[in-house]
Design goal:
The chain has 168 residues and is an alpha+beta fold. The protein is 36% helix and 33% strand. The strands form two sheets. Strands 3-2-5-6 form a four-stranded antiparallel sheet, with no helix packed on it. Strands 4-1-7 form a three-stranded mixed sheet, with no helix packed on it. The protein starts with a helix and ends in an 11-residue tail after the last helix. About 12% of the residues have low confidence.
Length: 168
């Protein structure tokens, strides 16, 4: 009986030693940061697949409304909505330059909005109907027009290529 106990103890010691020595003798093909990033991608993909499979079209709220700020300074977005009872729902977001902020579980409906610049000047004002998940990009339309005007003047300033036409 003692020999059986000794054999099982020696076998356990050998297996423990093997488990402890294998990681020391081998090297991984990837470093730790690559493994962590891969795990994040895998978990993020699984969450997306599992959470987006059940969307109800009859819900009274919008899952998310995100706003991206492409202006040169921070902005403040204020949205307001009148409820059927006459109450006013008002929400406000401060969005830094080149960043994105979101409203979650926003009641569906028509909202009036105001976009204020950092000096409290009104950049844009209007109404928007939120009925599904949305991403809104706020950018300066005047800069795009100025770039187009600059391109046209640059084209006009180029000299035409002189070509010789064969005379017959």
């Amino acid at each position: 009986m003692n020999s059986i106990v000794k054999r099982s103890l020696s076998f356990r010691n050998q297996s423990v030693m093997t488990i402890l020595l294998i990681p020391l003798l081998t090297t991984a093909q990837s470093d730790l940061t690559a493994i962590v990033k891969g795990g994040e991608i895998l978990v993020g993909g699984l969450i997306t697949l599992l959470s987006s499979s059940k969307t109800n079209p009859n819900t009274t709220t919008v899952e998310s409304v995100c706003i991206k700020n492409k202006l040169n300074d921070k902005i403040t977005l204020i949205i307001t909505k009148q409820t059927a009872e006459g109450e006013e729902i008002q929400k406000e977001l401060v969005i830094q330059k080149d960043s994105k902020e979101c409203f979650y579980d926003l009641p569906k409906g028509v909202y009036s909005y105001e976009i204020l610049l950092s000096d409290n000047e009104i950049f844009k004002k209007g109404e928007y109907r939120f009925k599904e998940k949305t991403v809104i990009i706020i950018k300066d339309e005047n800069n795009d027009e100025n770039k187009e005007i600059a391109r046209e003047t640059k084209r006009d300033s180029l000299k035409p290529i002189q070509t010789k036409t064969p005379t017959g």
